Amino acid sequence: MKKKLNFSQTLLIGSLLFGLYFGAGNLIFPIELGQNSGYNLYKVVLGFIISGVGLPLLGVVASAISKNDSLFEMGKTVSDKFAYIFTTALYLTIGPFFAIPRTSTVAFEVGIASNISEKNTKLFLLIFS
Predict the structure, then answer these.
(1) What is the enclosing helix (H) or strand (E) of 75?
(2) How far apart (Å, rounded) are the C-alpha atoms in residues 28 and 35?
(3) Got the DSSP string for 4-16?
(4) How high does pLDDT run on average in the chain?
């Protein structure tokens, strides 16, 4: 049975998909790629589309096809032990291992680093993070 989404649900899902596809890397990285690619521009664009759009799209499609309610439930199809390890590793990767250091470094570089001396940068970055 198909369920029709109301406007607020459609807006929420649209916002989530926009956030999935259009992160900070999709704003800054393509410009640098284009500048550095030279004659390989089309190869670089194709690689970026595959890695920046194709893989997240495959993840969304795989999640929808699986009809599971959670990541843990998806992992349980392999085994309970795998589900615990995979879910924990993924959440640690998303948060403390990559996202938090990346977002704090970007905010620090944009807002604070230009106002302090280079010898104090590491200390201030540690405090800021």
Answers:
(1) helix 71-76
(2) 11
(3) ---HHHHHHHHHH
(4) 86
* Dist CA 74 CA 63 (whole Å): 8
Amino acid, single-letter form, for residue 12? L
Distance (Å, whole) CA 32 – CA 21: 18
Spatial separation of the C-alpha atoms in residues 2 and 129, rounded to whole Å: 46
C-alpha to C-alpha distance for 47 and 87, rounded to whole angstroms: 28
Contact 69, 57 (CB under 8 A): no
Question: Which of 70, 63, 95 is closest to 84 using CA atoms?
Answer: 70
What CA–CA distances, in Å, run from 120 to 33, 65, 86, 125? 31, 51, 38, 9
pLDDT in tens, 78-101: 999 999 999 999 999 888 898 888
At residue 24 the predicted structure's pLDDT band, cuts being 50, 70 and 90, is low
